Amino acid sequence: MKTLLRTAAVFSFLFFLVAGGCILSQTLSSPASDAIPQAAIGFVFVGAAFFVGPMLLFAAERVGRKDGSQ
């Protein structure tokens, strides 16, 4: 179970990071008048990667402790 949760944390981090990077690369390569909202969406995806991935990893480390400590 722990391995599955760790793998999910890595995949979610990579998914959000790649999606944000793709949005930012397309937005910043062709500047237009509507580039700021699109860049903001890309930065939200990158920020989500650095929040969701570590939070899932933290949750994976807390699951399955058998020593009784909380």
Structural notes for this entry:
The protein has 2 helices and no strands. It has helices at 2-29, 35-62. The model has no long low-confidence stretch (mean pLDDT 87). With 70 residues, it is mainly α. Helix 1 (2-29) packs antiparallel against helix 2 (35-62). The protein has one domain (7-62). The longest helix has 28 residues, at 2-29. The two termini are 18 Å apart.
What does the secondary structure layout of this molecule look like, with pairings?
Layout: H1 2-29, H2 35-62
Task: Give short descriptive properties of this protein.
mainly alpha; elongated; 2 helices
Percent range for helical residues? over 70%
Q: Tell me the distance between the termini.
A: 18 Å
Chain-averaged pLDDT: 87
Largest sheet: none
Concise description?
80% of the residues lie in helices and 0% in strands.
